[in-house]
Amino acid sequence: MTRIAFIGLGNMGGPMAANLVKAGHAVSGFDLSEASVKAAAEAGVDASKSLAEAVRDAECVITMLPKGQHVVSVWTDLATLVTEGTLLVDCSTVDVDSARQAHRLAGVMNCPSLDAPVSGGTTGAAAGTLTFMVGGAESAFAAGRPILEAMGKKIVHCGGNGAGQAAKICNNMILGISMIGVAEAFVLAEKLGLSHQALFDVASTSSGQCWSLTTYCPVPGPVPTSPANSDYKPGFAAALMLKDLLLSQEAAAQSGARTPLGAHAAELYRAFENGGHGSEDFSAIIRMLRQTQTS
Ligand code: NAD
């Protein structure tokens, strides 16, 4: 049993904290939203009224917050609140620079730290089947691994500070590009009079096979559990896909990597969000591609 403070009890953090409770850890939780704290308390999390109250006596602090600025701000506040040696873990998806800044703040506090973003969405968070992509020192990883195992089924140590975030944004750049590719193929098939099922049967068993096709198929029918079958209710919202694509483009600009398709995917998802579709599943971009083709 570890005393864990969980900061950020939203769509992801709430169920993740609940799984830590189920695994027998003592979890205190804090969120700016009272409703989120209340929901977490119903799952056995000890509700705190402030960050200070939540992290008091914690052996490990986990943050699951929207953006890099929130993580850096909370980790800055932790400096006066946690004791040396407390393990600090950020599971949010943030830019690599903010992740490294958070690690530097932990270093000043003499606290081991990990960036540990996740893949698997809210379903994976609830089921405890997330994949964690982890950056940080070997010793910090060894300390954090048993805690992460209570929330996920695959824990990958990707390298030093920031390597987890780097893996996350590279993976999601593949995802954004591949979803657009699959959606374009279905739009073309429609124009050519080829049925959705026929394209699926061929592509899913040949070289076009990918997760965007076989798990999140952007047309209803071939994969009954894909969001296309429930009017594109997320799932993984288009606004979050845009956020991750923009993080990849920021990292590409800073590192000098050439990612033309990543840049184009970000442009298309920005147009989709500007059209008022940010809260739809990211596979709904097929609707915009159909319109673009006929206009
Ligand atoms: P969310 O908006 O549901 O939850 C974030 C929570 O952080 C909110 O409840 C908010 O009130 C709280 N918060 C913000 N600032 C705070 C502060 N200073 N102190 C305490 N609480 C604070 O978002 P989410 O969907 O849970 O996503 C969290 C992170 O996980 C994001 O970085 C997101 O990109 C990433 N992520 C989300 C998904 C997904 O499918 N939702 C999948 C993978 C990764």
TrEMBL record:
It is an enzyme of class 1 (oxidoreductase). GO terms for biological process: L-valine catabolic process. Residues 162-289 form the 3-hydroxyisobutyrate dehydrogenase-like NAD-binding domain. It comes from the Bacteria. Keywords: Branched-chain amino acid catabolism, NAD, Oxidoreductase. The active site is at 168. Residues 3-159 form the 6-phosphogluconate dehydrogenase NADP-binding domain. GO terms for molecular function: 3-hydroxyisobutyrate dehydrogenase activity; NAD binding; NADP binding. The keyword Transferase does not apply. It catalyses: 3-hydroxy-2-methylpropanoate + NAD(+) = 2-methyl-3-oxopropanoate + NADH + H(+). Its EC number is 1.1.1.31. Pathway: Amino-acid degradation; L-valine degradation. Belongs to the HIBADH-related family. NCBIfam families: HIBADH (TIGR01692). This is 3-hydroxyisobutyrate dehydrogenase. It comes from Aliirhizobium smilacinae. The lineage of its organism: Bacteria, Pseudomonadati, Pseudomonadota, Alphaproteobacteria, Hyphomicrobiales.
